[in-house]
Automatic annotation (TrEMBL):
<dbReference type="InterPro" id="IPR016163">
    <property type="entry name" value="Ald_DH_C"/>
</dbReference>
<dbReference type="Pfam" id="PF00171">
    <property type="entry name" value="Aldedh"/>
</dbReference>
<dbReference type="GO" id="GO:0016620">
    <property type="term" value="F:oxidoreductase activity, acting on the aldehyde or oxo group of donors, NAD or NADP as acceptor"/>
</dbReference>
<dbReference type="InterPro" id="IPR029510">
    <property type="entry name" value="Ald_DH_CS_GLU"/>
</dbReference>
<feature type="domain" description="Aldehyde dehydrogenase">
    <location>
        <begin position="15"/>
        <end position="468"/>
    </location>
</feature>
<keyword id="KW-0560">Oxidoreductase</keyword>
<protein>
    <submittedName>
        <fullName>Aldehyde dehydrogenase family protein</fullName>
    </submittedName>
</protein>
<dbReference type="InterPro" id="IPR016162">
    <property type="entry name" value="Ald_DH_N"/>
</dbReference>
<feature type="active site">
    <location>
        <position position="245"/>
    </location>
</feature>
<dbReference type="InterPro" id="IPR015590">
    <property type="entry name" value="Aldehyde_DH_dom"/>
</dbReference>
<comment type="similarity">
    <text>Belongs to the aldehyde dehydrogenase family.</text>
</comment>
<dbReference type="InterPro" id="IPR016161">
    <property type="entry name" value="Ald_DH/histidinol_DH"/>
</dbReference>
């Protein structure tokens, strides 16, 4: 078993002032596979001081040189992709095939794309007699989740460093090992000391110390809406910029002319990806009332056919949830849905003696807007089917949520689908089989957060704007 008693601060491994450790548990079999130190506010102080001291030189480093470091990181990630993919599978239960393609593919893309963008980015421009300068904030505090652990770190670190900020990262205590792997790569390529810092620990101890720190200039947080509110509250004391990528309860509108035999299986499989632990998952399928029975049959057949099991098995589609705590949370939502009158189409097991935090793919129908499963993010393999009576009714149901992260519309007419898509209040909307664009701006409306990640917009999230008048 691996024990990690150090944080990564000022270009070296630094023993934490904390004296306790956090176990890292494989959710597929409940085994403790590692322990990491539970960092402290004093560790955060040291990391932030290091980042602050490194900022002047790093921000003055030419963008092309910063890009060279990011390219080197991407290269090392590619070299070690199999080991890192297996690490992520072990610490959070993602099937190995998905870990390779997505859990590693996305962060690889972020480091490479951030490097490409910053090489040609215009940090200065002229506007009506003024010079407009975009410059880094200073110290970026990055607080990241467990569902796409390396991807969410990369979105903040790659673009934050490209912009010229220095960084202090707090990874999720559930999935710290991939962050450790990234720190080892950064150490190996020789990134200047203090530019990247990593502090292990919990949200209340380390996350809040970062969010409230006087010398942290901007905080980028990804996680639940509840936790995001707390980050914003703590950060408000120093009036710093806060970027939040939070929860979702995303609608998937199936119009009455859509090909159900294609749309429903594709939608169920995509929604169940990563065992439903995706903030932008299309967890509400909104369908014509007249076709409800047909949709239910197709959804049940698809969900029942998904292979659930050992994440190291190449054929597994769904592994366990990230933890026993997350499993119980999802079971609680399933019990509540049944109690509130939702009709269980398939799945829904809430009792198991088997090892591992598994939940069977679950589908509910007859879901209405007053039900908890309509309103709250489950973050598990649980689909809610809701019926509508007209296109206007479908849009109303889609927007009847506190969230606005993602959405989708399906129709045999792309023009008709796009008209409906433009009425959905969400940060990104898929039309028919529109492919996910990893470099398009990602972020939400309403309580799904603020700010955008990835691509040019992700870079600009970490840049201040200054105007110079002569």
């Amino acid at each position: 078993m691996q024990n990690q008693d150090c944080n990564y601060v000022n270009g070296k491994w630094a023993v934490s002032s904390g004296t306790t450790r956090i176990p890292v548990i494989n959710p597929a079999n409940d085994e403790v596979i590692a322990e990491v130190v539970a960092g402290t506010a004093a560790d955060v102080d040291a990391a932030v001081a290091s980042a602050r001291a490194a900022f002047p030189a790093w921000s003055a480093t030419p963008p092309g040189e910063r890009a060279d470091y990011l390219t080197a990181i991407a290269g090392k990630l590619a070299e070690r992709s199999e080991d890192l993919a297996r690490t992520i599978s072990a610490e959070m239960g993602c099937p190995i095939s998905i870990s390779r393609a997505i859990q590693l593919g996305l962060p690889l893309n972020s480091f490479a794309e951030a490097a490409n963008i910053v090489r040609g980015y215009e940090f200065e421009s002229e506007y009506r007699g003024s010079t407009i300068v975009r410059e880094p904030f200073g110290v970026l505090g990055a607080i990241t989740p467990w569902n796409y652990p390396l991807h969410q770190i990369a979105l903040k670190v790659a673009y934050g460093l490209a912009a010229g900020n220095t960084v202090v990262v707090k990874p999720s205590e559930v999935t710290p090992l991939c962050a450790l792997g990234l720190a080892q790569i950064i150490d190996e390529i020789g990134l200047p000391p203090g530019v990247f810092n990593l502090v292990f620990g919990t949200g209340p101890d380390v996350g809040e110390a970062i969010a409230g720190h006087d010398d942290v200039d901007i905080v980028s947080f990804t996680g639940s809406t509840r936790a995001g509110r707390r980050v914003q509250e703590v950060a408000a004391r120093t009036v710093k910029r806060v970027s939040l990528e939070l929860g979702g309860k995303s609608p998937n509108i199936v119009l009455d002319d859509a090909d159900l035999e294609t749309v429903v299986p594709a939608s169920v499989k995509t929604m169940m990806l990563n065992s439903g632990q995706t903030c932008s998952a299309l967890t509400r399928m909104i369908v014509p009332r007249a076709k409800l029975a047909e949709v239910e049959a197709l959804a049940k057949a698809t969900a029942d056919a998904l292979p659930v099991g050992d994440p190291t098995d190449e054929g597994t589609a769904l592994g366990p949830l990230s933890s026993r705590a997350q499993q119980e949370r999802v079971f609680g939502y399933i019990r509540t849905a049944v109690a509130e009158g939702a009709r269980l189409v398939t799945g829904g097991d809430t009792e198991t003696d088997a090892p591992g935090a598994f939940v069977r793919p679950t589908v509910f129908s007859d879901v209405t807007e007053d039900m908890t499963i309509h309103r709250e993010e489950v973050f598990g393999p649980v689909l809610a089917i809701e019926a509508y009576d007209s296109d206007d009714d479908a849009v109303r149901i889609a927007n009847a949520t506190d969230y606005g992260l993602a959405g989708a519309v399906w129709s045999s007419s792309t023009e008709r689908a796009e008209k409906v898509a433009r009425r959905i209040r969400a940060g990104q909307v898929q039309v028919n089989a529109g492919a996910f664009n990893a470099n398009a701006p990602f972020g939400g409306y309403k309580q799904s957060g603020n700010g955008r990640e990835a691509g040019v917009y992700g870079l600009e999230e970490f840049l201040e704007i200054k105007s110079i008048q002569r």
